[in-house]
């Protein structure tokens, strides 16, 4: 029997040990956040490296924390792709800022279940307060209530479930969809996020129930095509019920013309959901606030503070103008959860499929208070400015070309040297260029396809990213491309 077992055979880690290890781990985190550049941004692991370094069974007896911390450095860190690295430009760059991490620690420590108001009034009321603060900051109309979920995928799923619930003649709650002759249809642009398709699949509406509307030369939904599609569908027996407009699409961050789309939705009696998961945060910057124009007519809007507002994953906010419908879509209160105070308070379990809920609001609260509205706006403004600067470098360099406008902090571009004969070769060149730049480990970029063209994306969103890191990405791209045109790397 070890010393530890003799002292404390049952119960939790002794408080004095917790204090010691917690300090040690906080020191580790502080060093990590001070120097994420020590590591290659993209993990250089091969598949199985982490699994093979760990035993196949859980330890029968408790282990020493020292051994666990040693494995953190030995096994876990090499297998981490460092989203905290300022050279992370892939997908949508994010950051768990220090105040957000501290909020997350406290949320974990309280470990409350935020299902009912009374299961922790602070969790429920802080959720209400932070949603209200965020609403105000972004200039979302006071007609909107809100709820915090884990991800935009779930926010949109719940919004679309509410949209379906709003089709009153179907009585979805009671009757379900199976056996119904009604063929529900949702509309979004061909640039909409895949989470919309997934929500529709999950809700039993089926992929046939999504109609993708064409976009213009700047990747924005064409309202006229939307109106025509709805008319055609009605004539063919479909039941249109929802339109999803995107403010900041995933590939190019294009902004659908929400005012025109809202007008169509209003005329046709359709639920309008605005997916502003990434772009919505930018509305905190006063000169960017126009991006939510038209959203005041929406029924729901999703914004992800875990994407571009420095809150650790996961935290997504769904604003909803028809909280009653959202509630009606999900609320089901078994006897053991009935409370007598239900009239004065909100029980957030009523607004989604989940019963147990984390105390997520506390990390959003920490981030908002620590940086302040102006501090957040200043950081986002800087990201937008350095993205535009990168776009200019691309525009001025004859070896590169830009492939989409830059409304936010993402630049879509590719290498396009004069001597490359055709599109196939260009695609191959750009793919190899990206892989080589990523392999070098200083920066990490990802790609998309735009009109069939292999497109590089530089996404700025990490709180530690400065102009120097963006310049480094540019230098890396140019250096690797120069190597390529000398024929060293990319022959055949
Ligand atoms: C990132 C993103 C999503 C998905 O967000 P999750 O929180 O990862 O589910 C949805 N829509 C848009 C426009 C996004 O940028």
Can you characterise this structure?
This protein has 492 residues and is α/β, with parallel strands linked by helices. The chain folds into 2 domains: 247 residues, Aspartate Aminotransferase, domain 2 (3-Layer(aba) Sandwich); 118 residues, Aspartate Aminotransferase, domain 1 (Alpha-Beta Complex), CATH 3.90.1150.10. Helices cover 42% and strands 12% of the residues. The chain has a 7-stranded mixed sheet with strand order 1-7-6-5-4-2-3, with helices on both faces. A 4-stranded antiparallel sheet has the order 8-9-11-10. Helix 9 links the parallel strand 2 and strand 3. It is globular and about 65 Å long. It starts with a helix and ends in a 7-residue tail after the last helix. The relative contact order is 0.14. The mean pLDDT is 94. The site of pyridoxal-5'-phosphate has 15 residues, from helix 7.
